[in-house]
Amino acid sequence: MHLLSAGCVCALLFTALLRQVSGLETVIGLYGETLEIPCNNGAIKADDVMITKWKYDKGEGLSGDLLVRQKTLNVSISTNEEYKDRVSMAANASLLLSAAKLTDQRTFTCMVVASGDIQEYSVNVVIHKTPEDLEISAKAEELEIGKRTTLGTCVARDANPAVNITWLKNGKPLVADGKGISIQAAVQVDPVTGLSTTSSVLEYSAVKEDTDAQFTCSTQDTVGAEQVSSPVTFAITYSTENIVLQVIPQEPLVEGDNVTLMCVADGNPAPTSFNFHLKTGEMVKVENTNTYTITDVSRDTTGEYKCSLGDDPLMEASKNITVNYLDINLIPSGNIIKSAGEALNLTFQIGASGESKVSWTKDNAKLNKEPKFSKLTYSDSGLYECIVTMGPLSRKASFELVVEGAPVIRRLTKQRGEDGQHKVLICEAEGSPKPAVSWSINGTSLDESPFVNGKITHKITVVPTANLTVYCTVSNEFGTDTKVINVSSLFEEVRMHKQDQPDDNDQTKLIVGLVVGLLIAAMVIGVAYWLYMKKSKQGSWKTGEKENGSSEEEKKLEEKVEENSQKAEV
User: Fold this and answer.
1) Sequence-separated (6 or more) residues with CB below 8 Å from residue 69
2) Dist CA 561 CA 99 (whole Å)
3) DSSP code of 7?
4) CB 201 within 8 A of CB 150
5) What is the enclosing helix (H) or strand (E) of 504?
6) Is the predicted pLDDT of residue 565 greater than 60, yes or no?
7) What is the mean pLDDT of residues 445-463?
8) Nearest to 275, CA basis, from 258, 267, 287
9) CB neighbourhood size of 112 (10 A)
10) Is residue 169 a contact partner of residue 175, using CB atoms and an 8 Å limit?
11) What is the sign of the dihedral through the CA atoms of 484, 488, 490 and 494?
12) 385-416 pLDDT, tens digit each
């Protein structure tokens, strides 16, 4: 293929002016990297292209040539030193521009000759550069509450275009309000590289909650990722506003404890000097500590305590301390020996700093109330304990009561054994010390109950062959008591029992006969008495004797009637 003549090329260029594509495409390249600038974006088929030429805008209406490629020839470079080693053409006719610089921000044009037609495609190139790592410099040593202080300067170096810087506290953006927050930004351009450096100064008025708060700054590039600086924290200083007096350990306190007073102030830096005002009126000043310890407290330690700042005595705090105590007094106590029937007066007193709970036991069994002894019995003997509690405090008092006296037999009884072949005699007695039990006869199977509450039960088994009179005797060091019981012969009881058990029919007949006989006898006696009285009255009327003359006879008759009546009952 031969080269086009100059006249032909001129004609084609003239035609191209008429068909030049209006509007520019913009391509963004990254600083220092290779940039690909497209040509016609595939609008013309590669097989139809005869000549491809790249040129650039030199400014002031002038253009400069870069590359030319004919269909059958290699690419020829016709540029100056500025682009000589940095441009090449891709297979798809795109312009490859290496080591992109800010001076490459201009218009590049691709001219294509195809089938007698010439077209131009212009592309606007913009070069971006993300800033170097963000850093906060010129940091404040501390921030004072309520005072606007220059916190620091955030710098974003060598960027294009210049970036905007945002300040954040704990990840949340800070916005200038003209009061507690002020942000001043400035941009400087490097005259050699054309890169911009942005600096942002934050002035900030801290609050108490900013203690341990993390401050950062960030930028957001249009083509790069967000950049965030390393976080910084600041000491927040402020004068003491509040002071509190703490007691360690926390109440309740008891006698013998050690108690530490701690004065806590919210200033930063924390105060190092404190005054402790004791209950006694004494003031103790401490340095480089905020505590004061009172050892082995007592009930006299109870009262109001204060602490204040060493350099500001008017700023103080107070705390009431209560030392709990518990005293009990039981009179009498220990071992108590009393006689049965006597009274025992108990005196029980409680001295405590608060409400207490009292419980009584007797021989480890709970009592419902405090024991009272107006008249002692043997069952009152035992170990009495009183336990008084108040919070962590506990006190105990006790006495052991022994009720003594001569023994008394309360019951002496007998009963037939289950097999009917013997009798059991039972002697129940009270007394203390434990009484000895003796019988007037010998028996077998002796059985003695435990001696509890001054009571004892003694049993013997006997087989009486004749009627007996048996004595039970109990005795101790204070006296003796004896009771007697009659015991019938076991064999006599068996004989009488058999005689007293006739047949049922004979018993019925006997009962009916007795009843009828008694009725007849009563009727006969009544009729006889009536006739006798009638006869006596008639004789007296006839003879003129006084009625009382027969009184002796009447008396004899009455005695005879009564005698007959008694015989009938038998």
Assistant:
1) 51, 52, 53, 75, 76, 89, 93
2) 167
3) H
4) yes
5) helix 504-543
6) no
7) 87
8) 287
9) 21
10) no
11) negative
12) 999 999 889 999 999 999 999 999 999 999 88
Ramachandran category for residue 58: left, alpha or beta (phi over 0 → left; psi -120 to 50 → alpha): alpha
Kindly report the backbone phi and psi dihedral angles of residue 180, in degrees, each rounded to the nearest multiple of 5, phi listed first.
-90, -10
Beta-carbon contacts of 567 under 8 Å, excluding residues fewer than 6 positions away, are none
DSSP helix/strand/coil, 286: strand
* Closest C-alpha to 436, from 481, 385, 382, 476: 476
Tokens of 454: 């001054």
The interaxial angle of helices 504-543 and 551-569, nearest 10 deg, is 180
Q: Is 256 exposed, middle or buried (0-12, 13-18, 19+ CB in 10 A)?
A: exposed
CA 546 to chain centre: 114
pLDDT class for 508, splitting at 50, 70, 90? Answer: low
Picking from 346, 407, 340, the residue whose alpha carbon sits closest to that of residue 380 is 340
For 415, phi then psi, to 5°, come to -160, 150
Report which of 131, 147, 258 is spatially closest to residue 196, judged by C-alpha positions: 131
* Cα atoms in the Cβ-side hemisphere of radius 13 Å centred on 16: 20
Question: In the block, which residue shows the tokens 């076991």?
Answer: 490
Rounded to two decimals, what is the model's pTM? Answer: 0.50
The structure tokens listed for 260 are 């530490």
**137 in Cβ contact with 233 (< 8 Å):** no
d(CA 179, CA 528): 145
- Alpha-carbon Rg for the chain, nearest whole angstrom, is 66
| Residue of 570, 414, 420 whose CA lies nearest to 493 | 420
Instruction: Convert the pLDDT of each residue in 143-152 to its tens digit.
Output: 988 899 999 9
Strands (E), 176-250: 181-189, 196-204, 215-220, 226-228, 235-237, 243-248
- Whole-angstrom distance, CA of residue 459 vs CA of residue 436: 13
